[in-house]
Amino acid sequence: MFHLRVIVPNGRTDAVLEALRRQVGAAHVVLLRGVAMDGAGDVVEAAVAREAADAVVAELCRLDVDHVGGITLEAVDTVLSDAVDRAEHAAPGDGADAVVWEELLAKTGEEAKPSVTFQAFLTLACVLASVGVVTNSPVTIVGAMIVGPEFGPLAALAVGLVRRRGDLLRRAGLALALGFPVAMLVTAGVTVLAEFVGLFDRTAVLSAHQVEFVYQVGPYSLIVALLAGAAGMLAMTSAKSAALVGVFVSVTTVPAAGYAVVAAVLGEWDRCLGSVVQLVVNMIGIVLAAAGVLLLRRRRVGDDRPLVSG
């Protein structure tokens, strides 16, 4: 269930109210006249079933409210109301299966920004992965997988491909194209320093067997990436955020970047190349599977409407 708040300029309020009345998934419509401080206008609020939210937002956008006013959707976990129960029952489909495209665009767009925070998390994850490599510790590598923020831009690439959003593709591509090289460069500096002060033994690193999966590319590398990408996009579109932790643990992206750096510092170029290939295979597999899930879900609900808001 969503709480919907719409800021409407004078003269368009009746059209907004009529649009909400036509939606079987809307309940508790409230009108507050003349309360908008940013320009003369009214505020309309309503409870909207998740499975009807995309249709409601699309209708409001057709009324140009997203440009002349404002639309806010806020997820609500608990609502005690018979009217809301009837609205959810009347709305077509199931809330768990509904894709709210504007919500997904906002979420992936925010996570795809090449921000300082994103870079910091990615760098820390790569350094942590390098520690897992030199200490032959799969547990540390799993920790690096969880810390890594790279699934956000990868999901944004999938959404951008499906929705043909060039701005989202550019933003996510920039985050990855800048993020990984910078993180790997910092990790290389840390690894060189650790080798100089004798924190790890070259022979011990090269003989480590528990972390060989990082640079050994095979059919299962792509299979796991495809499964993880599909699960990750399902989790994002169904608001099952807890499932994303399993996605983070299953994909070998950050560990591959960390291993590539350690192998390069040690002059093991075969292992370095294998790690880079592993990284690329995983990222491509995630994006393709995530885009495939979005295409299947859009076809299932018959959603062929283009988004009109930017």
UniProtKB/TrEMBL annotation:
Residues annotated as transmembrane: 116-135, 141-162, 174-197, 217-236, 243-267, 273-296
Cross-referenced PANTHER family: AT15442P-RELATED
A Pfam family that the UniProt record links to this protein: DUF389
Protein name (record): Putative hydrophobic protein (TIGR00271 family)
UniProt xrefs under InterPro entries: DUF389 (IPR005240)
Source species, domain of life: Bacteria
Native organism: Kutzneria kofuensis
Entry keywords, A to Z: Membrane, Transmembrane, Transmembrane helix
